[in-house]
Each structure stands twice: as structure tokens, then as C-alpha cells.
Amino acid sequence: MEEHEIIDLLVGTPYKPLGRRLPEDGGLDCLGVVLETYRRLGIRLSGDWLEMQAHFHPIAPQEARFPDVFCTRMHKFLITGIGIRTSSGYLTSTPATGTVLLRQPPPGLVGYLRYRK
């Protein structure tokens, strides 16, 4: 699938805690947005964030592009949100918004990760 097709498919999806896969789960959380994006690109990832991190490496902000993962931190020691960097913004899901495409960097943005092929 192309970037715009994935964005069109996911934007508007309801937030669902532990939502990891569409349409089975009926919604996505922030990790689910990442998993579903990569699944649509033909890449299967574990649903465990700690396990998944072994497949990614940090990149500089200016290098970030689709489908790199962005990380947010609202707590001093924990990554509290993730999503997908797109050519037009930041794709993520929150309880307040469901899955949205943000045009500005999300609050607490701390870095970007790229999949190791």
C-alpha cells in the first residue's frame, strides 16, 4: 500500500486500548497504529513494544520520513506514545482523538526510530 492509502484507511479509526489489528480489534491504540501501518507495508512486527525495539534504530529528526516511528514522553522515564511520521504530519491514536493525522509535532516528542531491513 502507498502512504496516502494507509493514512486514508487509518484516520478516523476509534481509539481502543490494546487495539493492535484492523478490522479484528475494532480500533487501535498508538502501538496499533504502528503495527497496522507496517502490516499494510508487508512487515510483521511483534505486538510487544520492548521486543519491537530490537528491529529499530534511532535517527536524526531531519532524517524522519514515512514510515519512521516517532516517540513521545510525558513522563520523565517512560515513552508514553508512539506513531508514524508521514510526509504531511504525524499519525497516532489517543483516547481523546482516535486515530488522527497531526500537522504539528505532538507534545513531548523525543525522537525517531527507523526499521532495520
Structure, explained:
With 117 residues, this protein is α+β, with helices and mostly antiparallel strands. It has a single domain, classed as endopeptidase domain like (from Nostoc punctiforme) (endopeptidase fold (from Nostoc punctiforme)). It is 20% helix and 26% strand. The protein has helices at residues 3-10, 30-40, 49-52; strands spanning 56-59, 69-72, 81-85, 90-94, 98-102, 109-115. The protein has a 6-stranded antiparallel beta sheet, covered by helices on one side. β2 and β3 (81-85) form a beta hairpin.
Summarize the SSE layout with pairings.
Elements: H1 3-10, H2 30-40, H3 49-52, E1 56-59, E2 69-72, E3 81-85, E4 90-94, E5 98-102, E6 109-115
Antiparallel strand pairs: 1-6, 2-3, 2-6, 3-4, 4-5
Strand order of the largest sheet: 1-6-2-3-4-5
Q: What's the helix count?
A: 3
Helical residues, percent: 10-25%
Structural class: alpha+beta
**How would you spell out the order of helices and strands?**
HHHEEEEEE
Total individual domains: 1
Short description:
By secondary structure, the chain is an alpha+beta fold. It is built from three helices and six strands; from the N terminus they run αααββββββ.
What brief labels describe this structure?
endopeptidase fold (from Nostoc punctiforme); six-stranded antiparallel β-sheet; 6 strands; 20% helix; 3 helices; alpha+beta; 117 residues
